[in-house]
Amino acid sequence: MDLLLDTHAFIWFDLSPEKLSDVALDAFMNENNTLYISIVSLWEMQIKQQLGKLSLDGGVEGTFDKQRQCNNVRLLSMKPEHITTLQSLEDHHRDPFDRMLISQARTEDIILVTADKHIHSYKSQVELLW
Fold this sequence. Notes:
Elements: E1 2-5, H1 7-15, H2 22-29, E2 34-38, H3 39-50, H4 59-71, E3 74-76, H5 80-85, H6 96-108, E4 111-113, H7 117-120, E5 128-129
Parallel strand pairs: 1-2, 1-4, 2-3, 4-5
Helix pairs in contact: 3-4
């Protein structure tokens, strides 16, 4: 199963796995699953770190490298079709980072792992796991 981790799910997986649901943690630990982090999430994390809202040992790059090496987390880049898919999303939530993650998951047919209630309002448009 291919899983796209929402930004908070990636951070919790790295720093506070006890915050993850049992279902999410089991899915992350299952070696048959492929874990992805979006370039959009890395960008969001960098912004939060610069604003002092997030502290990561090794910074964003070091955290991603650690998860890539330890848990084989792969990077999902942005493609033009991710951007064009945004226009077909319902207007439940205006957070641009969340909307892009939803669009990427929908376009790539990847399950989005998130606890975000705003994103869960898109469950008719994208497969979610929590």
